[in-house]
Specification:
about 475 residues; alpha/beta; Double Stranded RNA Binding Domain; pyruvate-formate lyase- activating enzyme; 2 domains; 9-stranded mixed beta sheet; 4-stranded mixed beta sheet; 17 helices; about 20% strand
């Protein structure tokens, strides 16, 4: 699409316009060479008023819309929001689609809600999100609830807090929707023993850093990839390394993202139980066997049910299961059944993601879009999930979005009271420093005031992580340099 922006007020950046277009044309490309689709925006101020004119041209179909509004300098981003609302009105004439999150395009709707909650309170924030940002009422309520809950968690976090992420970037196969760094070929999987040795050294460096900074671990998350791809002995060695190197008590949340049911065995669950790991994640994404096969998962719904039954026997304090709304081939009825199947086990957490067409996924690399322009089915799925979860006693404790997500929909963590994931809240809100260990991880150094985040990136792939000529391990000196120069 070709963008023609004539905004004398400079109210919005080009990325904002692109984000709004992507609500209706997923994966649309932008550039001067595209002569088929275009968006014309004219915005100016005159005689105490804001004026906006919008024209969409999509495949020869043209839609125009204009609006005018009295200037009120006390209103947050007034002109930008007027432009956004006018674009959505013009787009509706062409696509007959109402984006559930309106003109709120960022990945952190809770962050936007917090700006207004602090200034005006929760009720007025819901009104602002509805009226100024065109957010649907139940989505606005969800954002405000998650905002208030996050604030309550942070009030009790204490000083000098930090978290740890441990990366196990290996999977048995790559799901067609996935873009995470994960190694699946036999040659790369053969690197696991060597990788764990290097990871052990990395963990020691991080532990030394945490001790010197006199920080307190509040959450530890072993993620991937699929951490359960490790053998029972390898899981034992990894947990022994973490428990021996780091000081933390039973108030520190420890999550092992076991992941796919085809990698989880009773022996592995037994090891996790012996180390008193309180929180595990078993992720089926759907219980529709035909969809599981089409997305590249090597397990069935029966496999998932059996693993959940095994996990229940070991008495883990908290079990999470992930589902994805809007997967290719998934009907609303099929998704509803998946949700009910999962809830029947009464896991303490259920995370509902919305299907995202990621750039490096097999779907995208193969030229497939994965979803059609009409995303009403996915909207129905997430709406049903929200209502069903509330009825069953689960509340939405964290909310975020990703680029190229179907319908600009959200990912939501639902939890029974008292079992919310601290790590998920910290990562999304960037409230305190998170140390990343292993390939593909990122260390985020958050300032004490919380207004600055510096990042240190580990090598992306395990073979880069293991190349001592290019990577010498976690750089403690870089962390202290960042802190000194603030």
């Amino acid at each position: 699409m070709k963008l023609h922006i004539d905004d004398s007020t400079n109210s919005a950046k080009e990325l904002y316009y692109q984000s709004l277009v992507l609500l209706f044309l997923p994966c649309e490309k932008f550039g001067e060479n595209d002569t088929t689709n275009s968006l014309y925006v004219k915005a100016f101020q005159e005689n105490g008023k804001n004026y906006v004119d919008i024209t969409f041209n999509v495949d020869g179909q043209i839609s125009s819309c204009s609006d005018v509004q009295d200037i009120d300098n006390k209103v947050f981003s007034q002109m930008k929001n007027l432009i956004g609302r006018t674009i959505l009105k013009a787009a509706f004439k062409l696509f007959k689609i109402v984006p559930p999150w309106g003109i709120s395009t960022g990945v952190k709707p809770v962050k936007l809600a917090r700006i207004f909650v602090k200034a005006f309170g929760s009720d007025e924030t819901e009104r602002i999100l509805r009226d100024e940002y065109m957010v649907l009422p139940h989505k606005a309520k969800m954002a405000v609830y998650a905002c208030l809950f996050e604030d309550s968690v942070m009030e009790n976090m204490g000083d000098k807090a930090c978290s740890l992420y441990v990366s196990i970037p290996f999977c048995p196969t790559k799901c067609n929707y996935c873009s995470f760094v994960s190694c699946t070929t036999p040659r790369l999987l053969s690197l696991i023993p060597q990788y764990l040795e290097a990871l052990d050294d990395e963990l020691q460096r991080i532990a030394d850093t945490i001790n010197e900074l006199k920080l307190n671990l509040k959450s530890i998350y072993v993620g991937g990839g699929t951490p359960a791809i490790l053998s029972s002995r390898e899981i034992d060695n990894l947990l022994s390394s973490v428990y021996s190197k780091f000081s933390f008590d039973n108030r520190c949340e420890f999550t092992f993202e076991a992941g796919r049911p085809d990698c989880i065995t009773e022996d592995k669950l037994k090891v996790l139980s012996q180390y008193n790991v309180p929180r595990i994640s078993i992720n089926t994404q759907t219980t529709n066997d035909s969809v599981l096969k089409s997305i590249g998962r090597n397990h069935t719904s029966i496999d998932y049910f059996k693993v959940m039954e095994s996990a229940m026997k070991f008495g883990f304090k908290c079990i999470n299961t992930d589902l994805i709304a809007g997967l290719p081939g998934e009907s609303p009825e099929s998704f509803f059944k998946s949700l009910r199947d999962v809830e029947a086990f009464s896991p303490q957490n259920i995370t509902v993601h919305s299907f995202t067409l990621k750039r490096s996924s097999n779907y995208r690399m193969g030229g497939e879009t994965g979803y059609s322009l009409s995303f009403q089915d996915a909207v129905n799925m997430t709406d049903y999930a929200s209502q069903y979860m509330l009825e069953k006693g689960y509340n939405p404790y964290y909310v975020y979005r990703q680029k190229n997500t179907i319908g600009n929909l959200e990912n939501v963590g639902y939890s029974v009271a008292g079992f919310e994931s601290i790590y998920n809240i910290i990562m999304m809100g960037e409230y305190h420093t998170v140390f990343g260990a292993g390939a593909g991880s990122v260390t985020k150094i958050v300032s004490e005031e919380g207004n600055r985040v510096d990042r240190i990136f580990s090598p992306k792939y395990p073979y880069e992580f293991l190349d001592k000529t290019k990577y010498s391990g976690f750089d403690k000196d870089a962390v202290f340099k960042i802190i000194r120069e603030r």
